[in-house]
Amino acid sequence: MDAEARLDLNRSSRIDLPEAIYCQSKTPDQCVSIVARLLEGAGGEDAVVATRITAEQRGPLATLAPTASIDGATLSTMTWRHRGPSGATAAVVAAGTSDLAVAGECRLTLQAMGHDVVPLTDVGVAGLHRLMDVLPELEPVDVIIAIAGMEGALPTVLAGLVPQPIVAVPTSVGYGTAFEGQTALMSMMTSCAPGIAVVGIDNGYGAACAAHRILRTATSGQSQRPKS
Q: Coil, helix or strand for 185?
């Protein structure tokens, strides 16, 4: 049962972002009940996003709604009932393959909101030529989400090369004094490149939501906050 869950079925009408399910620490039954209520709620039309899904939860959720999209790298994010095309494009740029879980959470959330996504992986600054090689693929995108662990240098390098808004995501990946992402977080927050927005460690979902706010404003030409 999910008696403790008080779902915010009107969130999209206020801020254009649906309530998401953070599945970690929930039971499979709780996850299934909440997803079912969200699929039925808000007129049965808006996107549904579930993150941090465990292997125990995945089967029941897939049985409940087999039309789910799922992150192929870690199978830890599932989405249902994607919105129609927004006309906007985001790039999800991951420094290494160890960052794919966070990148997948970010990519699927953006796609659920109707945005096109350009995924670029393994372009960290340890092999700077790899990043330089993909710069042409970034030219048409509207916003960039840069995901990196270790010392977290990728967003800073990108911000010195491209003009788009950049949302930086530190990950809990790295040797020695990476401190489970704290080093990357501090590095991104003290970047010498101006204008980088930084979310919390491993927060691919939060980065996607920040990018969505940027994209919906950019594509409309002005803020279109729904009226309460």
A: helix
